[in-house]
């Protein structure tokens, strides 16, 4: 199948050609016809499979054929970074069409709020928004939504994990009842099905490699104690000048600064991004990394689903993520668009059970490498021998009947 098979207008085909899109991915092959048929759809696909284009292209084509000039499509994303990424892809696809799009998210200036307000009143064709910021506008009741045709939720599972369920339902109440609902998610937990029942009508389902990592990713892990992690990181990166684009993920924002400081002391080109950094600072760091003016990016999971760069050579998980799905998204930053890449994870003695859950999720045993000689031996990998970790609220039940002596 080629993009010609979808019957897209010439302007969109020119945009695809300019962006280097040659043939549709599986999620695009299955999702685009359903969206073109005006069906509600739930599409489940891992990161890096081309799902953003899977909904942007048919929506853009419909806007082009019906005539732009009014608010047609509302896309909701969980983070600023993802909203910006979608906006940037929309800009590329619509370059030859004249279709307008604006990203609506918090953390900007009063000027940006006014620009967003104008777009909601006068009608940008597509608005990509984070839930909280959009509700700030909707509550003021000036948004012109009567012509809206498409309501799209991207990374729906992440939005629910972040507590946006009520916000999404409130947003839906402002929208026309007659509309097409499109939901893209990396997983399909029960809460996603519950949300779908509230806002969708007989949705078509598309499932592409749920919770699997891309074939092009070489995955491995090291078993280390926390005190060994910094030295191991420096040992792995030292002398690896052929790796031009590297992301180091950590679960704690306080660790970001420590890692960046240590790498800079070694003369390495590194910078960090976490929720402590303001929006302008985040955008500048990401811009430098995307443009290859920054070699090593140290980050929390704030960007694990919100950065779209095809040529990342190495992903290092400094910490094992708490949620196995986050591992899929972290390592999915590499080996995108059928390329190859490397993903390494540091497993301390306390995180072995969490790493076992990751292996069970992706149905793959990840190779455990021996630590370099100068790092020393770490803990043996024996996750099944660890005692279950109970929550603090856990209370064992005892038989109230007294035992006889």
Concise structural overview:
Helix content is 38%, strand content 16%. The chain is α/β, with parallel strands linked by helices and 405 residues long. α12 (279-290) links the parallel β10 (270-273) and β11 (296-299).
Strand order, main sheet: write it out: 3-4-2-5-6-1-7
Radius of gyration: 23 Å
Number of helices: 14
Q: What's the domain count?
A: 2
CATH names the topology of the largest domain as: Rossmann fold
SSE topology string:
HHEHEHEHEHEHHEHEEHEHEHEEHEHE
Helix proportion range: 25-40%
Summed over residues and divided by their number, the pLDDT gives a mean of 85
Fourth CATH level, the homologous superfamily of the largest domain: P-loop containing nucleotide triphosphate hydrolases
Give start-end ranges of low-pLDDT stretches.
388-405
Task: Label the overall shape.
Answer: globular
- How does the major sheet shape up? 7 strands, parallel
**Helix/sheet category:** alpha/beta
How far apart the termini lie comes to 79 Å
What is the CATH first-level class name of the largest domain?
Alpha Beta
* Corresponding CATH architecture of the largest domain: 3-Layer(aba) Sandwich
What percent strand? 15-25%
